[in-house]
Prior knowledge:
Elements: E1 4-11, H1 16-19, H2 33-45, E2 53-56, H3 60-70, E3 78-81, H4 98-105, H5 107-115, H6 127-148, E4 152-156, H7 158-169, H8 173-178, E5 186-192
Parallel strand pairs: 1-4, 2-3, 2-4
Antiparallel strand pairs: 1-5
Helix pairs in contact: 2-3, 4-5, 6-7
Amino acid sequence: MVMKLKIYLFRHGQTNFNENKRFTGWKNSKLTKTGINQAKIIAEKLKNKKIDIAYQTRLSRSKDTLKHVLKYHPECKKIVTDDRMIERSYGDLQGKYHKTITEKYGKKQFDIWHRSYNSSPPNGESIKDIESRVKYFIRDLIKFMKKNKVNVAISAHGNSMRPFRKHFEKFSVKKMMELENPYDKYFEYTIEA
């Protein structure tokens, strides 16, 4: 008999850096009141789903959002921290305001660093780099799910969600780069085992 296993993928709630238009990357930034409410909305939407294993990154926004979700899931046996799906490193831009970077380097350069697939900010990662590490995570995740027959929740980040969605929703690179991942919605994917 074929089992239909589920992946529930969502983005962390809004952080102080998000609200203030700062490059966050691998820096920790606390959820805002709005971000906490968004995490609670996701939790409510996932309340009646079955979650056996949950994944987070080392960043507090991923962990704090997941905590809200898991309040409804005593069946969740394990939380795994895996940084292959961590947010994009913005390198030297981390912690800096978008406005400051635009004023210093110009709008065109800001857009290249912020939204280009191939280009990375100084000492940072490109979206292509993120896609490379997320692909390995997805490969290992699917193997694990099939072997253990589990449903999983993934508390991810805006940029690491792009390659997830490209993979499961069969998007082109162009379409992936146009995605704006919402803070209060989850994406559900089915794996057959």
